[in-house]
Amino acid sequence: MNGTIAMITFRAMLGRKRALLLLGLPLLLLVLAVALSVTGNDDLDVSAGVLQRFGLATLLPLLALIAGTGVIGPEIDDGQIMYVLTKPVPREVIVLTKLVVAIVLVTLFAAVPTLLAGLILTGTTAQMTPAFAIGVLIGGVVYSAVFVALAVASRNAVTIGLLYALVWESLLGNFAPGAKSASIQQWCLSVADSLTDASPVRSTVDLPVAIGLLVAVALVATFLATFRLRSLPVASAD
User: Is pLDDT at 38 greater than 90 in this prediction?
Assistant: First the structure.
């Protein structure tokens, strides 16, 4: 990891406009959790639904999309990445640094708010809150790797990412069993399911399969991002 690249990336990601995007969804989740708790509508079924549908299925992929594409996509689009590529910094170090920044942002703005929302709703009943927090944390790593790779490979990374998260995982996943099983969301839900006894939390993917797929997707995405970054020409740096 390169400290200078990381610092510059953090500074860019936490600028006014992006910070508002990163803060908006977590605040909505926390407000919803407080409202349900105050009104007494925070039983285990409702709480599981909120943590799964809002935390895992909505907050996580959208925040990871913002972070994963934002840490490198704009630099590629406006050509600023060329100034980094002309420095004696290995491409894998650039990719890993950007990925670490994205993971830290997703942890702060998705995993931590999910943990806080769960504590507000159910505390540690049936260990559901830490289970979802860990599921979101692991998902943050994988989603970030995928979206960083998309940002390096395509100028339409945000559109492609939205189509995957909202159409494939959310829309088709509700009707096509194959689509549901082939989704990062379900693999993360499998991890959460293994860590809690709460009956509302159920995944369609076995844990060993889910873990294998999560690791494989993260590694392949990171490799592809590095490979693609190596192929970018540096002649336009002037």
Answer: yes
